[in-house]
Amino acid sequence: MAIDDKTRTELEAAVFRxxxxxLRARHDVQNIDLMxxxxxxxxxxxxxxxxxxxxKGVVVxxxxxxxxxxxxxxxxxxxxxxxAASPEQMAAMKKAQGGH
Length: 100
Description:
Order of helices and strands: HHHHHH
Number of helices: 6
CATH class: Mainly Alpha
Number of domains: 1
Distance between the termini: 35 Å
Strand content: under 5%
Number of strands: 0
CATH architecture: Orthogonal Bundle
C-alpha cells in the first residue's frame, strides 16, 4: 500500500475501532473461545492498550483500558455476558495456550 504514515495510522485506528464494535456486539463469543481460536481475547487487547500507554508515558489504568475495549466496566460485562468455561474449553486453552 502506497500511503503516508498519517493515513496508515488513521486507517489502523479505524479498523481497531471497528474490531472493538464487532466484539462488543458479539458478546456471545466468550474470551476463552477467542483465546482458543485466535490466541488473544478482549483482555489481551486491553492489556496491549495499557502497555502501549505506559510505553508512551500516558496514564491509563487497567480498569480504564478494559472499559475502552469492553465498552463498559469489565465487572459489568462479566456479570452480564461471561459464562462458565466448559471442561472442553479449559482443556483446549491449556493445550493451545499453556494456560494463558
